[in-house]
Amino acid sequence: MTIKRSLLSVPLRLSTWLLVFLLSMGTQAFAVNPDVSDSEEAIAAGKSIFNANCRTCHRLDQKNIGPALRGVSDRHSIEWNKSFIRNSQALIASGDPEAVAIYNEFNQLAMPSHEFLSDEDVMNLLSYIEYGDKADPAAAAATGGEGGQVGVDGGIPSEYLTIILSVLVVVLLLILVVLGLIISILTKYLSNQNLDEVDAEYVNQKFDFKKILRSDAFVIIITTLVVAFVAKSGIDQLYTIGVQQGYAPAQPIAFSHQLHAGQYEMECQYCHTGVEIGKSANIPSANICMNCHAHIQNVGGKEGISPEIQKIYNAVDNNQPIEWVRIHNLPDLAYFNHSQHVAVGGLECQTCHGPIEEMEVVYQHSSLTMGWCIDCHRQTEIKSQGNEYYDKLVQLHSESKNALKVKDIGGLECAKCHY
Ligand code: HEC
Ligand code: HEC
Ligand code: HEC
Ligand code: HEC
Ligand code: HEC
Ligand code: HEC
Question: Which atom of ligand 1 is nearest to the CA of 71?
Fold first, then answer.
């Protein structure tokens, strides 16, 4: 008995040690240079500089286009960080071994210079890098750590819906089977009783298919169904004239949102600069691509320049815009404004454009019909919190006890959408 127990205790203890070891790996803290301040103001100031200048390429705890930055004040001296952040190319050219090593590790991808940052800016940046947005290790593990993606919209993901539906179907089938069993047991039981003639006929009746097929009711039902189906698909067909849902033309450069917006988590606004400030979202010019592709010439750091990237260079050299094929296109008679929906309405791009960050080639996700606009305006509540413009309206409206929807501020008026 005792032997058995001690035998069991070995793997038990081993696994506890392993668990503790793994946990400590996950939460392992970097030593932080004591010169880096952990004051709230410094962290907040650093965060806004970081988001404006560094976030396109860096995350704190994950490798992105550049290395994960937390712990950088431990890996290098403060002076080194200052010169690298301000002008990494100069430091690399001077032959600094730390700078050359990291440069080579990242396929000689040059980080842009930030000469405009003051000493204080850089110190604030380091405060944010070391102390800001500390990742919750449990949450990081749940999203799969590196490259983990969190779903965009709340609600029930469609896979779950399918599962729920199939479970429902199985349950229904089971109920059918049980009912069938009960019927057959009852029939058996009843036919063993002494029944009068009418009851006996009722219990022993057989399902007469031919009779049903020949009945008038059946013929009428089937004809109605067929006619309704043909009419419905005909009308649907008419409604889809001019609707380009699913349209996914080939583009002149094999640009992938899945890679840029998905894998590298680039902000949509970095390229589509107009979404929060104007009517149009804008398609980026080749110069925006060149911020990175002046140096990134190939996927996976292969030798030579990829032909797709060469097309960007040709466009810049010849001063010729890249001729992207337009996908979403409302007719001229309709007016749609992005900032109204994104900045004021607080809607996610994905609500209208679908899972862009998973698209290798962009396709039109929504129908873009008038009915689509109107449906959403009928259903969607106004984000009125923190928007003084709406305070009065909300107050007036609250008497009617219904939520304030887009339709209530004129979202169904013809002239709001038609010139
Ligand atoms: C266009 C992409 C890009 C931007 C923007 C960028 N970096 Fe970098 N950064 C890199 C790359 C790539 C490296 C790896 C070294 C190399 O290839 O030069 C790097 C390396 C670093 C390093 C060295 C890290 C280490 O572990 O040794 C620091 C520090 C750093 N960046 C800070 C910043 C800060 C701060 C900003 C914003 C002010 C910034 N970077 C903006 C791409 C970028
Ligand atoms: C690196 C730059 C870049 C980023 C980041 C980016 N896009 Fe794009 N986007 C483009 C380019 C270039 C095109 C035109 C080529 C194409 O359709 O793929 C485009 C096209 C689109 C289109 C179709 C435009 C049309 O012709 O109707 C939509 C919609 C779109 N992007 C949405 C998004 C969303 C949403 C995000 C963020 C999740 C995003 N984009 C991130 C560069 C970018
Ligand atoms: C913030 C940096 C950044 C910007 C801006 C950017 N890209 Fe990229 N792009 C990358 C990275 C990183 C890769 C993948 C490199 C790798 O995996 O080795 C890449 C890969 C690509 C590839 C695949 C190259 C190949 O060899 O197959 C194409 C094509 C591309 N980008 C086009 C564009 C276009 C067009 C734009 C402008 C609309 C753009 N990129 C803007 C960072 C960027
Ligand atoms: C309420 C729905 C809705 C939302 C939210 C939305 N869009 Fe659009 N988007 C549209 C419609 C409609 C068009 C077609 C506009 C036209 O043809 O005038 C469009 C067109 C575009 C285009 C093509 C170029 C242009 O400006 O017409 C791009 C790029 C784009 N959207 C990107 C985005 C990005 C990025 C976001 C999120 C920041 C976003 N959209 C949010 C509905 C939406
Ligand atoms: C996913 C939901 C959604 C869709 C789809 C949508 N909208 Fe909207 N729309 C909103 C919201 C939310 C607002 C309110 C923004 C605010 O708070 O002012 C709004 C406001 C507007 C307004 C201003 C109304 C007013 O009285 O101030 C116009 C105009 C408009 N949308 C046009 C359109 C057009 C045209 C389409 C279709 C091409 C469209 N919208 C599709 C959600 C949507
Ligand atoms: C929320 C925005 C919105 C409102 C409000 C709206 N429309 Fe529209 N309407 C559209 C859009 C977008 C289209 C283009 C749809 C398409 O291309 O399939 C359209 C198309 C139309 C067309 C078809 C034109 C054609 O050539 O096919 C007519 C007619 C029309 N609208 C009339 C009206 C009238 C009348 C009202 C007021 C009762 C109204 N609309 C209110 C957005 C709106």
Answer: 26
